[in-house]
Every structure is written in C-alpha cells, then in structure tokens.
Specification:
Number of strands: 12
Bound molecules: glutamic acid
Structural class: mainly alpha
Oligomer: single chain
Shape: elongated
CATH architecture of the largest domain: 3-Layer(aba) Sandwich
Helix content: 40-55%
Strand order of the largest sheet: 1-2-3
Largest sheet: 3 strands, parallel
Length: about 450
C-alpha cells in the first residue's frame, strides 16, 4: 500500500510551498488508495506545535484535503528514539563522543584553514580508553567511510553521494539526550510505514544521512521524490513581496481553494499543456514521476487567471458561501443568482466580487466625480426625469422586462443607450461601471431603482 506523509515543522502558518508538497503527497496516496499521514516535526519545541497543527488543519479544511488517522508529533516520541539510540549503541553502530566544544572548534578551524570540508574526525569512533571527565558525551552514528550511497529519486533520477564528501559520524543524540533531526525523521518514516517520501529538494542533502540511519537500523528505504523549489519570477527564493506565502492568506485575498490547488499543482507538474484540473482529474492523472526536474516560477497572473476561471464555473452556492466567509451574506437576497451571474465575468477574486456586489446592493453614499462630470451633463436631467415617469408607470421585473421598457423609451425619444445607461449606472452604483445595465436594474428592482434615480436627481 502506498503511504505518504506531510511532515511540517511548526512555523505558525502553512507556507504555499508546503501546501504544494502536501498536495502532491495527498494526491499520490489517494490515487493509489493508500494513506496520507501527518507528522508535526516539533522536536526543537521553540515553536508551539498546537498552533502549527491548527494552521495546517485550517488550510486542509479550506482545501478539502484530509489526512488519515492520528497526527504524529515528534515531541511525543522521544521514548521511541531513545530506544533506537540504545539499540545502536549496544550493537556497536553508534558510540559516545567526548570531544569538547573547544576541541571541536579547533578541529573545524584547522580544516577550514586547510580548505577542507569541516567534519568530525572520528576520534572516539573506536575509543577504548578512559573518557575525559566532566563531559557529557553526545552519541554519534558510525557512518560508513568512503562508501557510495545511491538511490533512484523519483524526480531527479539516480542520485549518488560518497559518504566521505557529504557526511561524517553525525550526532544522533545530543549530550542532553535529545535526538537529532535526521535520526528521528528516518525512524518516523520507517515506523510510519512510508513507501513514498515526497518533499522539497532543500532536503536532498539530508537524504544520505537518513539512509545511513535506515541501514544501521535495518529499515526498508522508501522511494524518495525531491521536489524542486518554487522561486520568484527572478529565480530567487520566494518572498512575501512576490505574493502571500501563508496559504491561508489566499482565502482572505479572495482566491478559491480550487484555484490555489490548481495553481500549485501546475507549479512543478504538468500534463501536456493542460492548465485547468479538477480534483477528480488530478486524482486520475497525477503521478509524482511527472514532477518537473527544474524549479518553477511563481506567476501571480496565472493564479488570477485560474481564479477567474473558477469564478465563472463554480456553483452558485459555493460562491455565496465564499462571499459569506469574507463577510458578505447574500444568501437571502431575492436576486442572488442574477447578482452573481452578472458579476462572474468581471470579478477575478471574491474580494472584487464582494466590492462589486456591495456597490449594487447598497444605495450609493457618494458619486464618482469623474463619472458625474462626464455623464451628468446636457439634457441628462430631462431624460432621467422622463424615464422615471416611464418606470413608475410600468412594473418591470426581469432583466428582459427592464430592457423592453428602456428600449421602447429610447426609441420613442430617439436616444442612444449611453445617454440613459450611464446616468442609471451612476444612480445605482455611484460609478459608471456595472454589469449589464438591465441586470443592474433587475437586481435592485423597480422600487429601489426609482428611489435611487430620485436621489441622484435630487443631488445634482
Ligand atoms: N519538516 C521539514 C520541513 O518542514 C520536512 C521534512 C521532510 O519532509 O522530510 O521542511
């Protein structure tokens, strides 16, 4: 069975790069009817892991991603790690190292002066003598010397390292007994039964160390997929200046989770030149072996484009509920369907949609000076006053009925639409921009239209 995981370190928010690896792991597990597990890597406890979990849960809920079973917390697994330290010690595969900080620093400095890679020199590897007093030892693993560690990365292909070049007898437990990062990651991945580890390629240099741990403990090595980073358009590390890095912020910015996931999945994975993918399609088509080998560039316009696609296609109820989450409840508006359908084409984000809808459903409190100057001139007052009379004498309801009476009025008075449409838009929204003027009239209804036109006539 395919088992994948997402293993964030607590940071208080979920980075979009993290969400992307989580999504890849999720898709792969779900596609294979496997399991997708969640582990919080909170061994250094400087950050609060509850807060990190809450942040992740929020994003997962919003994006409808779910993990299987209970959450694993590394901070609750110290007994397990301790047992494996003891096992390695008793099997002679790890040893106590009494090197003092000063000695280690001196060694480093010497290596640096000789332009060598800094690494532990194995002083206590086969130490038989009496240990120095007053030093709490660290535990180091006996790493294979001058040995090739090779694995077939699902994305990068064959990766190989010589142990002499990339590692040393690294510490697996500090002098206070706490285990170190690569040691616990390897143990957890093995005990959680992972078959496929999909993670950022910033972890590639950790992999040989983790393989050393797997081998020392006799665990099966999972398949690794190291996913290239998301960079900014200039090819540098993505920063907040390029776009929000906190996944949850995209909700506040008015993005749909479908758009964000679609955007993220394509940042680094492709299927021909298809851009839009539903979750069902992804579950059918996604395979981590098709993840790109090179880094991908964050493209804010693409995300916006995808969001407008979903704005046009998502069901009405979804849009109503996303609007509600952003503080605008139109669920009981009598013309909510028209309200949304007439704006879907223009609003790229839910935030824009909210602004546009607000400008129609609320009576304007001010009128855009430029629009006023441009359109409220000449005979506008005479025309509008006369149109007001027509309105009062009729009972239009639908967009079509508003269109019929308006067209008739224009024909009778030999007018062009602009002469009437722009002042009506200004009366309704306070600006000269709105969707179809007939939709606009139908949305607010005849009575409200009459009152807004009267208000405009009274103000100018
Ligand atoms: N905790 C690591 C991180 O947040 C991920 C470790 C891994 O995937 O192996 O970058």
């Amino acid at each position: 069975m395919t088992i994948t995981r997402f293993a964030p370190s607590p940071t208080g928010y979920l980075h979009i790069g993290g969400l992307r690896t989580a999504l890849y792991s999720y898709l792969w597990a779900r596609k294979k009817d496997g399991k997708f597990l969640l582990r919080i890597e909170d061994t250094d406890q400087k950050r609060n892991s509850d807060e990190a979990l809450e942040a992740i849960k929020k994003v997962f809920d919003w994006c409808s991603l779910n993990y299987d079973g209970d959450v694993y917390y590394q901070s609750k697994r110290f007994d397990i790690y301790k047992k494996y330290v003891e096992q390695l010690l008793s099997e002679g595969k790890a040893y106590k190292c009494y090197m003092s900080k000063e000695e280690l620093t001196a060694l480093r400095e010497e290596q640096m002066a000789n332009k060598q890679r800094t690494k532990y020199n194995g002083k206590y590897r086969d130490f038989k003598g009496t240990p120095p007093e007053g030093i709490e030892p660290v535990i180091r693993i006996k790493a294979p010397e001058n040995t090739i560690i090779e694995f077939e990365d699902g994305i990068k292909g064959k990766v190989s390292f010589n142990t002499d070049d990339v590692l040393d007898d690294f510490i697996i437990a500090r002098s206070d007994g706490t285990p170190t990062y690569n040691f616990v990651v390897a143990i957890d991945d093995a005990l959680m039964g992972l078959t496929d580890v999909i993670r950022g390629d910033d972890h590639l240099s950790n992999t040989p160390k983790q393989i050393v741990v797997y081998q020392a403990l006799g665990f099966d090595i999972p398949k690794f997929y190291h996913v290239p980073m998301i960079l900014n358009p200039q090819g540098k590390k993505l920063s907040k200046r390029d776009g929000a890095t906190d996944a949850m912020e995209y909700k506040t910015l008015g993005y749909f989770p479908e758009a964000l996931l679609n955007f993220l999945v394509r940042l680094g994975w492709s299927y021909g030149d298809q851009e839009v993918f539903s979750m069902d399609e992804l579950l059918e088509l996604f395979d981590p072996k098709d993840i790109n080998k090179s880094a991908s560039a964050y493209n804010a316009d693409k995300l916006l484009w995808l969001n407008s696609h979903y704005m046009k296609t998502l069901p009405l109820d979804r849009i109503v509920s996303d609007l509600k989450d952003l503080g605008l409840d139109i669920s009981s508006h009598p013309n909510k369907e028209l309200l949304i359908d007439s704006h879907r084409e223009r609003a790229k984000t839910v935030v824009e949609l909210k602004e546009q809808i607000n400008s129609i459903i609320n009576t304007p409190t001010q009128y855009a000076p430029k629009a006023v100057k441009k359109f409220l001139k000449g005979e506008w007052k005479t025309i509008m006053t006369s149109f007001l009379e027509t309105l009062k004498q009729n009972t239009p309801n639908s967009s079509q009925e508003f269109e019929d009476i308006t067209v008739k009025f224009m024909e009778e008075n030999d007018l062009k639409l602009g002469k009437l449409a722009q002042p009506i838009r200004i009366a309704v929204t306070g600006t000269a921009v709105s969707p179809s003027v007939y939709d606009t009239m139908a949305i607010i209804g005849k009575d409200e239209l009459v009152s807004r036109v009267e208000k405009l006539l009274g103000e100018f």
